[in-house]
Amino acid sequence: MGKQFDLILKNTQYVNLFTKEIYPADIGIRDGKIAYITQPGDMPLQGENCHDGHGMYALPGLIDTHVHIESSLMGPQGFCQAVLPHGTTTVLADPHEIANVMGLEGIRYMLDQCKSLPMDIFLLAPSCVPSVVGLETSKTIFDANEIEQMLRNDRVIGLGEVMDYPGVLKKDGRMMRILDVARRSGKFIQGHAPGLRGQELADYLSAGVESDHETHDAGEALEKLRAGMVLECRNASNCHDVEMIAQVIVRCGYPERVTLCTDDCEPEDLLKKGHMDEAVRAAIRGGMDPIEALKIATYNAAHLARLHDRGMLYPGYRADIVLLEDLLSLNVKEVFVCGKLVASNGHILEQQYPSNSVLPNTMELGAPLTLADFQIHVPGKTEAHLHTICYDLSDRFVTKLGEHLFPVQDGVVQVSEEPGFATFAVLERHGVNGNRSIAPVYGLGWRGGAVATTVSHDSHNLFVLGGSAEDMLLAAKTVAECGGGVCCVRNGQILTLLELPIAGLMSQEPLEALAQKSRNLQDTLREMGIVGDAPLMILGSFALAVIPEVRLTDVGLVDTVHQKKIPLFIEEEEKSK
Questions:
Q1: pLDDT in tens, 486-504
Q2: Which residues have C-beta within 8 Å of that of residue 174, sequence separation ≥ 6?
Q3: Three-state DSSP state, 461
Q4: By the 8 A CB rule, do 232 and 261 touch?
Q5: Which residues make Cβ contacts (< 8 Å) with residue 359, sequence separation at least 6?
Q6: Closest to 354 (Cα-Cα) out of 113, 173, 94
């Protein structure tokens, strides 16, 4: 058989993703690639360097086609240590969080941090920095030149989620330029198309976008599959779509234009539930055949990403191999990358990956923080008619525009004196323009105190929610002084503090310690009124300018559907008519 194998995996149950068979096999590895897999009736492979698979199931390494590493609150090194033991050997990461905070410097940081890891982390060039130009302030604005520069890097294998789908449908000049350079690169173009159907879906696909991870409804999933769109079925900490979409995938006979992704995963979920292994388990719970679900998370994913050297155990392909105890619990026991054992029994075998990257403090607030930043001032009046953001507790991601007549005392609007109301504030922190905005919010269920966070999608300005201006000021100052993070305050006392000094988004703490701090923070947020599976992620979406219908960014109130600003004062709106 030519050159001696570098390694032989003996005594495995090979999961053949194409014939849907499972049979005993030896796997020969040479130069980090699959060299030979025995078939029933073949003689066992012979060689000096053998590894006993103990009868475990052998399959390709799992691939996540859409993830934001920053949402794990860890950098690439910590993320790798968290997910590699769960069988994830390749991810496609969209770093638009750090890109909004640091621009191209943030992209270079992520590339540097990923280059020496024992798994492959490829980047997607962020298409929406910021998510909507003119409606929020990021560190910089990416246009076609920046996208083209990133796409020239071999480790940047596509265009990140095109969130500005209204801009695509309107043929906005910036989005058209970005899509043009992405199409010319020949690389993967990832979509973000919540609710798009009919002609709008066709127009979005016609622009070159290939996929979507924002599908929650079975009917919508079927329509998108029929249109030829790739469904990246999401199993995130704050959004569990896989089980619902599974019925559609089964009905359609497991089409190849389906993958699995995790999008945003919190550290506690990575520690307790896993990563892509949990996404596959969710698919199986939804009714998918285990082998079909595994094919979706391996072969289909590699095909979408144009990674034609992985995704199946095939001669000449990378020897990225996962050994499982069984195909239902997906208990990953051992993980090989390029034929090297890199993780065993839930632990990565190499712990340190040195890097010389050092990031600056990204809290560039400009003017000092004062109580006035968290108060709405109306001199000389006894009442003020204001627009408000209105929430429905059954769906924390959707908002409506409301209005309310507030009392004014000593020139300050008494927002928290009105039942059901609290105050939002957003302060630009990138040293660009010093914007500061404020607005009342209704129906959030807030129970008092304040929380400040720099995890505020997508521009990640300093976001503060609270009842009293004093608590809001303390929370904001605490976050600013530690270089970013999340702080909860009540009655002048700091309740919890999660420091995130890497761009105000990430920490270098190990997974276990970070998961405990995150758990404490989540419990505090729930007690303060932010309920749900992932309170921090819910909080982080309150300023996101691409979620319907009304948000507060650093420029003020924003109508996200029509992409326009809304005046805070009703009087101003009436005068402008």
A1: 999 999 999 999 999 999 9
A2: 133, 143, 144, 167
A3: coil
A4: yes
A5: 102, 109, 502, 503
A6: 113
